[in-house]
Design a protein that fits this description.
single chain; 254 residues; four-stranded antiparallel β-sheet; 18 strands; USP domain-containing protein; cysteine-type deubiquitinase activity; Peptidase_C19_UCH; USP
Length: 254
Amino acid sequence: MTEDFRETVTRLTSPREANIDHLLKELFEELQKGRVYWSNSADPRNILRALEVNNVHEQQDAAEYFERILRKTSGDAAKIFHGWLSHRTTCLKCKIPTDSEGPFWHLPLELEDSLGRNYSVEKGINKFFTETEFNGDNQMYCEICDTKVDANRKYVITHHPDVLILMLKRFDFSYQWMSYIKIHCNADVPHTIRIPENQIYELYAVVEHFGDLRGGHYQAVIKSRDEGDQWFVFNDSSVTKLGRNPFPDNENIV
């Protein structure tokens, strides 16, 4: 989460049962007081019940539950993570584009086990937004031309979120093993990244997964503006300040 998200949640004045803002507000207030023991109202188990988490010892997908938190949070608080993405198809005969638009919380990037080479997040972004051409047996039907035609299709962000989340899809189905596997290749993560339509984002957090599909552990490395842009490691109940910047400006990090 971010300082803006926390401040929006803590400005909440009238709790709504449909949202979990009031639960997050109570939790943030207890954390800011530096308390070790929770009051009944700020008990984290209330949030777990609201998120329908029945077993805290069972591994869950971080991206899935992050989206679940945002969907159960009020629109005012969650909007900084909320973007709009269009699947734009352009008929190459009449040149008229048609858009299929919808909201998104993160952009999924397909990883490839590249035989010892690092996966490039920048190249992954470029591939995600690369235009695909449909022709031959793969022609698409155009309602304007009333026939199958050659066409191009690409993703276009029509509303850029304040905070962009990239999900590196490390779990994929292997036809060799006929099961899901984890892709363990290293990834080059840039300090800043440029998204089409000339939007630039600066890295401020990384979530890391250790383990495999059946079990593992998540931890996060986050930059806090409240602490003068210091970086911290969040590892369950342990929060540790790093003595160095793990993500130097203008450098790619493996």
